[in-house]
Design a protein that fits this description.
- This protein is of the alpha/beta class and about 375 residues long.
- It folds into 2 domains: about 230 residues, Endonuclease Chain A (Endonuclease, Chain A, 2-Layer Sandwich), CATH 3.30.870.10; about 160 residues, no CATH class.
- Helices cover about 35% and strands about 15% of the residues.
- The protein is built from 13 helices and 15 strands.
- The strands form 3 sheets. The chain has an 8-stranded mixed β-sheet with strand order 1-7-6-5-2-3-4-8, with helices on both faces. A 5-stranded mixed β-sheet has the order 9-14-15-10-11.
- Helix 11 packs across helix 12.
């Protein structure tokens, strides 16, 4: 028996010495990395075959736990991570930065088609993880083996405190593990063959992709966590009829997206800032948000510089210049300086009798930008420009 500490004695170096031409390699582990293949490429090219068992459901289509429901997230994300590690784990970032992934994936895919078979555990029942090397005159067992990656081989550092692997070649012990592996490998009820799926999956790494596909992949990886966290309760309620309002019909698509995003941020974070460039219709986007909350029977307060007051007052009065008179806006308009006043009037509103509630925005600016804030669910929305 030999103890491999992956510090002074690396598992990868030990495997290179043990893998002889014509050897049969059998592995039961949680993940497989193409960079581990690259590290042992010369030795793996000379073996007779590789039989690999994913000890947890991986590359299994139609799995019940693939649903994106939040209550199943603890099962869904690890499965994605196991599949992503096929192209390198988070600890193999230095290898990824060499930009050789495409070439390695192409070589690995060719090798898999010729010599490897992959099967995945169908269910959630745990399986022991180990590797077995059969040669003409001996059998070696390596355990525990968490995954077939460069971290497990000892060539890259991981986050584990220790990574000790036991290697033993006594026939009385190796026979037990070899029989266990063969028994599980031939059980079609427990395992499902995923070799063809892996070949198709790995082909996506080295195939030529159009610029559009790369762009969409970038967008997905940037916003996938945001999409998972979206909640229907935080999205605009279509039953309010806000999409039938005149202001909504006048908006361009990018302005509608802005208004929808503002409502989502208000419901999620109780605040939002809209800071588009001049001339992109920030006022109209803010009016669409105002109409949404008015249709939800919420009162709205607009705080603006005094020189912009006429612009906002135009849309909540019955004037010939009000192109949205049909929407009957009913928000209040005050100036920034009115926040410090306790008497007098502002646009006909007595300041000593205003029901401020808890919606006070104390900052000020001279820039023509629109912002929306809602300090609490019970507060009324405030539009500041």
């Amino acid at each position: 028996m030999e103890i491999i500490d992956n510090i002074n004695n690396l598992l990868g170096d030990n495997l290179k010495q043990t893998l002889k031409p014509g050897s049969k390699l059998k592995i039961a582990a949680s993940c497989f990395s193409i960079y581990a293949y690259e590290a042992l490429k010369l030795e793996l090219e000379r073996i007779e075959s590789l039989e690999f068992i994913f000890t947890s459901p991986t590359f299994v289509p139609g799995e019940a736990t693939d649903k994106l429901n939040k209550e199943h997230r603890q099962y869904h994300i690890p499965k994605l991570e196991r599949e992503r590690r096929f192209y390198g784990s988070e600890f193999e970032i230095q290898l990824k930065n060499k930009l050789t992934q495409r070439a390695i994936a192409k070589e690995c895919a060719d090798w898999i088609r010729r010599k490897a078979s992959f099967r995945s555990n169908r269910g959630t029942a745990p399986m022991q993880q180990f590797a077995c090397i059969q040669t003409a005159d001996a059998t070696s067992i390596y355990m525990p083996l968490h995954g077939f990656t460069t971290v497990d081989l000892g060539y890259q550092r991981g986050d584990a405190v220790s990574n000790i692997v036991n290697n033993f070649d006594e026939p009385v012990h190796t026979g037990v593990f070899l029989n266990l592996f063969d028994q599980i490998w031939s059980d079609q009820e427990k395992l499902e063959d995923v070799t063809s799926i892996i070949c198709d999956h790995i082909a996506s790494v080295y195939q030529e992709n159009s610029p559009e596909r790369i762009y969409f992949l970038m967008l997905y990886n940037i916003f996938n966590e945001f999409l998972e966290d979206l909640n229907e309760d935080d999205l605009p309620n279509d039953r309010t009829g806000y999409q039938d309002s005149l202001i909504w019909q006048k908006l361009f698509n990018f302005q509608r997206d802005a208004a929808t995003g503002i409502i989502n941020k208000l419901e999620t974070f109780n605040g939002c800032i809209l800071a588009d460039s001049v001339g992109l219709g920030k006022t109209f986007s803010a009016l669409a948000v105002i109409k949404y909350y008015e249709l939800r029977n919420r009162s709205v307060l607009v705080l603006c510089p005094k020189k912009l007051a006429d612009n906002w007052l135009n849309y909540n009065h019955n004037l010939t210049t009000n192109i949205f008179a049909k929407d009957r806006f009913n928000y209040d308009v005050l100036c920034h300086t009115d926040l410090q006043r306790t008497s007098g009037e502002s646009f006909g509103t007595p300041l000593n009798r205003i029901n401020w509630g808890i919606t006070i925005w104390s900052s000020s600016t001279n820039r023509i930008t629109s912002a929306t804030t809602m300090p609490s669910k019970t507060a009324r929305p405030v539009i500041k420009s």
